[in-house]
Amino acid sequence: MEKNINDDMCADIVRGALTAHGFDGVEIVERYNPRSPRIICKVRADGEVLIVKCIPYSVDEKIIVGNTSAHRFLGGRGLAPALIRFPDGKDYVRERGFWVYMFGFIDGEILSESPEDEYALGVLARRLHSTDGYTLPSWFDGDTAPYRGKYRDKPWAADYDRIVDSLPDFRTLEQCFFHSDIGPHNAMRDRGGNVYFIDLDDSGLGSRWLDAGYPFIAQYVTERDGNGGGSYSYNFDAALAFLRGYYGDEPVPRDEYDLLWHGAVFMQISYLEVFGPDKVDNMWRILCYGLSQKEALWERIEGERRI
């Protein structure tokens, strides 16, 4: 069931799940990312507009429990779309090889990488990380062990090992609600100006420094030519705006800045193979370029303090 499915089959699965568990008048309004093996649809049911997500059975049920729990927890605090239970009381159901769950539809727009939106994202991230009471751990725990000793065939293997060995054990550092992919692509602003996180698939209890550090390499480093040719730039304006939102009027402590960059490095290392084996060298170059900008960004932070 992980093959791409056509629109008719998608509609049958969504209608079947919702109708079997208490909804009437189910209408598929829009389907998102139809090439994905996951089904994500905007649906109208019983006069209510919902987002329905159908995840293949190959995904462990523990992940689905985490996803639905995260929406229930954050939705009640205005940080993410709220989980919508089925009329028969279930958080999620099974339908033809898929786990199916729903959350509220946000009428708005995805954030951009403008300084204004990066500032709003920093504010939202700090709110997220300051929200206590969530207990389900993310599967992404920041353990460096799986990444040690890899890429022995690469000319940069020794540098890679040195970088991995320099990272802290994130499992021993401050834990909070962890999104796993903080960026403008995973946040929305509604018509009233409220900002919410979306895509909580890998969220749970985890390290604040992995979460807040993620964009400092993975997002703020950009390829100038877009083809992996090794020419990069750094979006200092976006990084500074995010930090202003995250720290507010408080100065950025140097020890926390270093932890943010440790988190950025770990997240980039975890993504080295995400685009396939032929992209690993380019992902490594992005990591190295990002690290080369760390002190330049710090100088700009220090410069703002003197203004």
Write the layout of secondary structure elements.
Blueprint: H1 7-20, E1 27-32, E2 39-45, E3 48-56, H2 61-75, E4 83-84, E5 93-95, E6 98-104, E7 108-110, H3 115-129, H4 157-166, E8 175-178, E9 187-190, E10 195-197, E11 204-207, H5 208-213, H6 215-218, E12 221-223, E13 232-234, H7 236-247, H8 254-270, H9 280-292, H10 294-306
Antiparallel strand pairs: 1-2, 2-3, 3-6, 4-6, 5-6, 7-9, 8-11, 9-10, 12-13
Helix pairs in contact: 3-7, 8-9
Residues in helix, %: 25-40%
Structure summary, number of beta strands: 13
Number of helical runs?
10
Q: Supply the number of structural domains.
A: 2
How big is the Rg?
21 Å
End-to-end separation: 58 Å
The quaternary organization reads as single chain
Structural class category? alpha+beta
Shape: globular
